[in-house]
Amino acid sequence: MESNSIIAQTHTKQCTHDQKLSCGNCRLNTICMPVSLHVDDIDQLNKIIQRGRPLNKGEYLYRANDTFTSVYAIRSGAVKALTISDNGDEQVTGFYLPGEVVGLDGLANNNYTNSVIALETSSICEIPFGRLEELSVQLPKLQRHFLQLMSREITHEQQIISLLGKASAEARIASLLLSISTRNSSRKLSATAFLLPMSRTDIGNYLGLTIETVSRTFARLQKTDVIAVDKKEVLIKDVLGLQQLAKGAE
Amino acid sequence: MESNSIIAQTHTKQCTHDQKLSCGNCRLNTICMPVSLHVDDIDQLNKIIQRGRPLNKGEYLYRANDTFTSVYAIRSGAVKALTISDNGDEQVTGFYLPGEVVGLDGLANNNYTNSVIALETSSICEIPFGRLEELSVQLPKLQRHFLQLMSREITHEQQIISLLGKASAEARIASLLLSISTRNSSRKLSATAFLLPMSRTDIGNYLGLTIETVSRTFARLQKTDVIAVDKKEVLIKDVLGLQQLAKGAE
DNA sequence: CTCAAATATTGATACACATCAAGATCACTT
DNA sequence: AAGTGATCTTGATGTGTATCAATATTTGAG
Known about the structure:
By secondary structure, chain A is an alpha+beta fold. Chain A folds into two domains: 15-163, Jelly Rolls (Sandwich), CATH 2.60.120.10; 167-246, Winged helix-like DNA-binding domain superfamily/Winged helix DNA-binding domain (Arc Repressor Mutant, subunit A, Orthogonal Bundle). Helix content of chain A is 38%, strand content 19%. The first copy, chain A, has helices spanning 39-48, 129-138, 140-166, 169-186, 200-207, 211-223, 239-247; strands spanning 50-51, 60-62, 70-76, 79-84, 90-96, 101-102, 115-118, 123-128, 193-195, 227-230, 233-236. In chain A, the strands form three sheets. In chain A, strands 1-8-3-6 form a four-stranded antiparallel sheet. Chain A has a four-stranded antiparallel sheet with strand order 2-7-4-5. In chain A, strands 9-11-10 form a three-stranded antiparallel sheet. The A-B interface holds A 83, 85-87, 89, 91, 93, 104-108, 113-114, 133, 137, 140, 143-144, 147-148, 150-155, 157-162, 164-166, 205-208, 246-249 and B 83, 85-87, 89, 91, 93, 104-108, 113-114, 133, 137, 140, 143-144, 147-148, 150-155, 157-162, 164-166, 205-208, 246-249.
């Protein structure tokens, strides 16, 4: 079959064959642990981090109620976090891309409240929390950085709350696309052409919409020439237009 | 005017005339800073905490974009936190009752993203973050407790996200009432009879509903004898029924 | 106490999104 | 390559909540 991708540029493959995996040479270290540490400090951080085999699509990184042991940085791939509510159904609470950290919900009661599942084959750096805590005593900057990560999670979730409280289906989808766009951009990937790692079902669940509404909204955004979509491929054709829609303009 | 309150028991007035204000004798210290500290440690914590004049209804504790300096524990009264979204309108992100801590959003970028406003006259304990950080180095338990506070904020917000994503108006209102009920209960106040500190507008904003829907939902819950409401007074008459509704039963 | 402004209630109607239903396309498995 | 189940799209219809509108009640000021 010929390539008929709507995304012209070839997709940057995450190279998992770094000569030597270490925080020092990881190209994500400006996002993940952007602490201005000395070389030996980075080395110390590097030593506590464990890198297991890649997670395949659909595999769990951890499950709700598992004992909290570690936080995890996504090195490549993508994952979703979800909780099970009282009535039994799932709620996707977030998508996490390379350089981002999951597991911060685990500190509250010493067990995770979310389950985390790979959306595609993903490499993960495990950061045992006990060791991180010890290291933090010596490295106040690391300590502070960790607090910032948590605080950012809080403010990000407040944005989601605002989105779910007020925004139309169109604004919700637009916001999600812009969020992914921004995050890709900070990882030096294209801000306008990318693959969605998650299914329509996941998007709908996350944004409080049915998959039919998600599908129709994508169709409408395409018809109005704001984006082009083909399955999981997305091309943002009118960033400003999308930003207007995300704000609630019509 | 005769008292025609639907709440039989007299409301527990927050006594602000403790013989001497200190974390050691604060009756909220099991909620606010439930760290098993030695007496001298509590004393140290106590020393860094500042207690200003009470905040009157409508007054700001801090405003979005103010430089982050402190976190704040509510000692009496109640406050709301809110953000302003891109399109300019407010989003109430949370209500905070005595023993609860606000300001954790400020760490992300060294300025607050929320504004916090008193819903009624409130006494607040200011905890300068720099001092807290210093003290934490000596008291690992305090450090850990602070991380737990943040993590709890994260998991609580995820519950709100789940609520806003799926739940009906009735389930949202039921959840809020149960949340306040539980929190009152942990403060040794009545779990079934209390005053709502916030307006219908605030409730609607927080839960992603219009005030008309809030009003109608209260009316419906009253008609089905699950609660009794009169303005801000609430009496939960059927806790189990309310829990069922919160879960999405009909 | 009286008035004005803010807040809350209640009713009638409209609409955005859910639900129901049918097909289409994709991605595995054999 | 064919078959099967998962995922996605598109259409027709229904419904919960928003919106619009009018009135009632409460709160605060003078």
